[in-house]
């Protein structure tokens, strides 16, 4: 991969966890001469300036994108269509528009109709994050060793895909190009349903707590505590993910429910063999993920200079 050619002016629309991580990494690797951001939240704009994430922070998305040669939408996916409508008249000739949304087809459908012909649209999704939000939550190494999926469409061209690939590669990500629909199916099972399960189990335990008083917190075992980390993820972001990847999530959820019913039956009928076989298979998957270096549960994942601390 050729060295990334720095962008003249990078505009981050939304300045939360992901945008602030991009800003830090872009600065660290000299990937943009100027970085500006936009957010309707005055506290986020002030924090972005105080942390040195952006040279200018705008309340107006349209003003923010003027003169930028790379604009990345880093808002919850549910507002990306409205943001595209706001900025469409102010995007520079030849600008690349990208995004970091956790859902791809819904974002393409919402954004593309608003774009003028002179803009290249290259949707993308970094498979990296945490349960925290806001400008202070980001860190420069977030994308190191993690996947960045690009889902080109009729408004992308090879040159802008190559430039965006070089940008993310310079921040440490590994880039994979994929069809948007396929991305949404894969992420439904690997990311969206796990979050739904975490929200559900913590909610169920919370309901039980009215009966058992504080025992849910007092005796919370490690497994449950891991779920509470995921269930602490941003409510707006995740509401939008489920509403915008509805079909894939419902399809995967139907499969999941069938398999859960089979486990329920195995427990009811004392079928230890079925339980043992599944648990053996899933243990092997966990080990394969660790062997592939994709275990972000290790506290130092992505932050190591030499990668030596990854589980
Ligand atoms: N958090 C993760 O783990 C993660 C990982 C990969 C991708 N993503 C995706 O990245 C995007 C941002 O997530 P985040 O975790 O950084 O969120 P965040 O809540 O930390 O930040 C969102 C930012 O968008 C701003 N915003 C909201 N509405 C806006 C609007 N109409 N115009 C301009 N700015 C607006 C907010 O003020 C905030 O600054 C989402 O689309 C999410 O699906 C998140
Ligand atoms: O590590 C976490 O906290 C995450 O949930 C990150 C995670 C994921 O599911 O892996 C969440 C949403 C994204 O779109 C990408 C990454």
From TrEMBL:
Reaction catalyzed: prephenate + NAD(+) = 3-(4-hydroxyphenyl)pyruvate + CO2 + NADH
Domain of life: Bacteria
UniProt enzyme class: oxidoreductase
Pfam annotation, one family: PDH_N
EC number: 1.3.1.12
Keywords for the protein's UniProt record, in alphabetical order: Amino-acid biosynthesis, Aromatic amino acid biosynthesis, NAD, Oxidoreductase, Tyrosine biosynthesis
Domain Prephenate/arogenate dehydrogenase: 8-297
One example GO MF annotation: prephenate dehydrogenase (NADP+) activity
Pathway, per record: Amino-acid biosynthesis; L-tyrosine biosynthesis; (4-hydroxyphenyl)pyruvate from prephenate (NAD(+) route): step 1/1
Gene Ontology BP, a term: tyrosine biosynthetic process
Family: Belongs to the prephenate/arogenate dehydrogenase family.
The name this protein goes by in its record: prephenate dehydrogenase
């Amino acid at each position: 991969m050729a060295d990334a050619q720095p962008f003249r002016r990078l505009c981050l629309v939304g300045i939360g966890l992901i945008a602030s991580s991009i800003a830090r990494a872009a600065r660290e690797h000299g990937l943009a001469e100027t970085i500006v951001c936009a957010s309707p939240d005055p506290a986020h704009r002030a924090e972005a300036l105080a942390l040195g994430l952006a040279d200018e922070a705008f309340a107006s998305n349209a003003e923010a994108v003027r003169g930028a040669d790379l604009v990345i939408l880093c808002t919850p996916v549910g507002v990306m269509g409205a943001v595209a409508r706001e900025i469409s008249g102010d995007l520079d000739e030849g600008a690349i528009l990208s995004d970091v949304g956790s859902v791809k087809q819904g974002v393409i459908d919402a954004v593309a109709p608003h774009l003028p012909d002179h803009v290249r649209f290259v949707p993308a999704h970094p498979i990296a994050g945490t349960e925290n939000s806001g400008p202070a939550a980001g860190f420069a190494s977030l994308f190191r060793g993690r996947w960045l999926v690009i889902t080109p469409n009729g408004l992308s061209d090879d040159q802008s895909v190559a430039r965006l690939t070089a940008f993310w590669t310079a921040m440490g990500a590994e880039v994979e190009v994929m069809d948007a629909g396929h991305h949404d199916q894969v992420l439904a099972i690997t990311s969206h349903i796990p979050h739904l399960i975490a929200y559900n189990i913590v909610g169920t335990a919370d309901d039980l707590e009215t009966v058992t008083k504080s025992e849910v917190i007092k005796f919370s075992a490690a497994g449950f505590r891991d779920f509470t980390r995921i269930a602490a993820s941003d409510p707006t972001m995740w509401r939008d993910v489920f509403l915008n990847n509805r079909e894939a999530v419902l399809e995967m959820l139907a499969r999941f429910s069938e398999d859960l019913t089979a486990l329920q039956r195995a427990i009811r009928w004392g079928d230890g063999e079925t339980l043992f076989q599944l648990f053996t298979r899933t243990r092997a998957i966990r080990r394969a993920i660790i062997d592939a270096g994709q275990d972000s549960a290790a506290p130092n994942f992505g932050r190591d200079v030499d990668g030596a601390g990854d589980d």
